[in-house]
Amino acid sequence: MEWLRDLIQYLELKYEYLRLRTKQEALEIVASSVAALMLGFIGLLIVLLASLGVAFWIGELTGRLHSGFFAVALFYVLIVVLGVLNKDELNRWLLRLLVRAFRDRLRLDEIRHNLNATQADESRRKLAERNDQLTENPNRGGRTEDRPQP
What we know:
Blueprint: H1 2-62, H2 65-85, H3 87-136
């Protein structure tokens, strides 16, 4: 019954590996999300401060401060209208951008998965060979010196 112990040990190790892999992937997702949120917040601050600077600059050029803010607001309204009109193209562009960003990570995960599948296949093959050996000759389970001679 050594093969049964090996099988149970293999399943326990596989379960532990999957549990740890799930934790690692969850942590990677959290880390990526936090980094993206931080960059997004910094980008938002940059756009906000640049917009204020441009609004004040246009206001100085025209001599009316409020006209600079209206010009910047009109620019953002134009961007929103163009985004709504080209929503499908914008979605495709964002999807391509995200796919490119995660392509290398997905390939690495696929390589890891294939490697684990190969190792699992090898372990299953060894267990099957051992089981076949034991069913063909039940006396081959241990060392022959330890068995009493008839």
